[in-house]
Specification:
This protein is of the alpha+beta class. The chain contains 14 helices and 18 strands. A hairpin with a 4-residue loop joins β7 and β8. α7 crosses α11 and α11 runs antiparallel to α12. The protein is globular.
């Protein structure tokens, strides 16, 4: 089994979380789970106002370079993990959108991903084990600290992406990768007409190309990143591997288009492109329909230079980012999402607009909603962990 519960060897920060949850349950007082506090407007508004912060639960517990595994406390910033692992020519290939101070626990709890998911997958593919405290103040350990430990009931994946509604993640063990020997980033100028875009993406899909990331950016975002002047869209391609592999992939790119070197730091700039106050939605459909999904997201963005759109073309997902400082922008995004014949997930919205996005699955009326409600009651019977954040009533 991968599930274990124990009070032994609990760190002081985990014990504090355990105590806080027990006290909240006794008082019937809902909690708002926080990491670094970067995106407290992400997800539906939480009905609990008492904060439970993991910001001080920091530090690397165990790092075994030979096994390519690392265990850290939930509040550990991703940039600290990057600094420590770089010394061993390794990295954690998770690059969620937001500042580098984003925490490991929040990244896992929200299943946040960035462009590197194209090659390395989502947090569910990179998290090996967790320590967490459930809503009835029970310390749970799932998975293990070695890559091969995959037997048993997989609570690791269940807790990943549950937005703190089942348990508060206090510690995580993650899979690391070797840093590429050589890395280069290129930009391809893109014709956004559906026919031309579909033709380019089809050629890329069937080409023997293995990029680390493949991200389409709108003209306004290309300009913001220093890739173009704001007149045309661009496709960012991140290559990595040994010298021979990167060289052959670079030559292959040149047969498909006319790549130009991307600016230094372009991927960091892309991760941090969201304004402090923004409305953000993800449009998704099968990757083969990427040109259609891109058009829908671009239409939702309007013509303002304050809006950005980018897409992970290999995953079929386009993110539309609108500054809420622009009058009517968030409302326009909600209306456009309602017309899209695919899946739309809102990441950030002004609080008053969330009710317009409520679905049957969120209210618990569907079979999926009833299943989610049953799982929630098993791990958080008093409903004290982030109530409301998933849109449930």
């Amino acid at each position: 089994m991968t599930l274990s519960t124990s009070s032994a060897h609990i760190s002081p920060s985990t014990a504090a979380v355990e105590d806080a949850i027990r006290a909240a349950a006794d008082r019937r007082e809902p909690l708002r789970i926080e990491g670094a506090g970067n995106w407290l407007d992400a997800g539906w508004p939480v009905t609990g106002t008492t904060p439970l912060s993991l910001a001080d639960a920091t530090g690397i517990v165990e790092y075994t370079p030979g096994d390519l595994t690392l265990t850290a406390r939930a509040g550990t910033p991703l940039d600290e993990i990057a600094r420590v692992t770089a010394a061993e020519r390794q990295w954690l290939a998770l690059d969620p959108f937001g500042p580098p101070t984003s925490t490991l626990g929040a990244t896992i709890a929200t299943a946040s991903v960035g462009p590197l998911a194209h090659a390395f997958g989502t947090p569910r593919d990179n998290v090996l084990g967790l320590e967490a405290v459930t809503g009835d103040a029970e310390v749970v350990r799932t998975g293990g600290r070695v890559v091969k430990n995959v037997a048993g009931f997989d609570l690791t994946r269940l807790f990943t992406g549950s937005w703190g509604t089942l348990a508060v993640i206090t510690e995580a063990t993650v899979r690391l990768r070797a840093l590429p020997e050589v890395e280069e980033s290129w930009a391809l100028i893109v014709d956004e007409s559906p026919e031309e875009l579909d033709a380019l993406l089809t050629r890329l899909r069937f080409a023997p190309l293995e990029p680390l990331a493949l991200e389409l950016v709108s003209p306004s975002l290309a300009s913001h990143l220093g890739v173009e002047s704001g007149r045309v869209a661009a496709l960012l391609v991140r290559l990595g591997g040994n010298e021979g592999s990167v060289r052959s992939q670079r030559e292959l790119l040149r047969t498909l288009s006319r790549p130009v070197a991307a600016p230094h730091g372009v991927w960091h700039a892309l991760r941090e492109c969201e304004p402090e106050r923004a409305a953000v939605a993800r449009f998704s459909a099968p990757p083969s329909r990427m040109a259609h999904t891109w058009s829908a997201a671009r239409n939702a963005s309007g013509a303002s230079t304050q809006t950005f759109v980018h897409a992970s073309v290999g995953r079929g997902i386009a993110r539309c980012i609108l500054s809420v400082a622009e009058s009517g922008a968030a409302e326009r995004l909600v209306d456009a999402a309602a017309r899209f014949d695919g899946t739309v997930i809102f990441e950030r919205l002004p609080a008053d607009l969330w009710p317009r996005t409520r679905s049957e699955s969120a209210t618990g009326e569907s079979g999926t909603g009833r299943l989610a409600r049953g799982i929630r009651s098993r791990f958080d019977p008093m409903n004290v962990l982030n109530p409301g954040i998933l849109g449930e009533l």
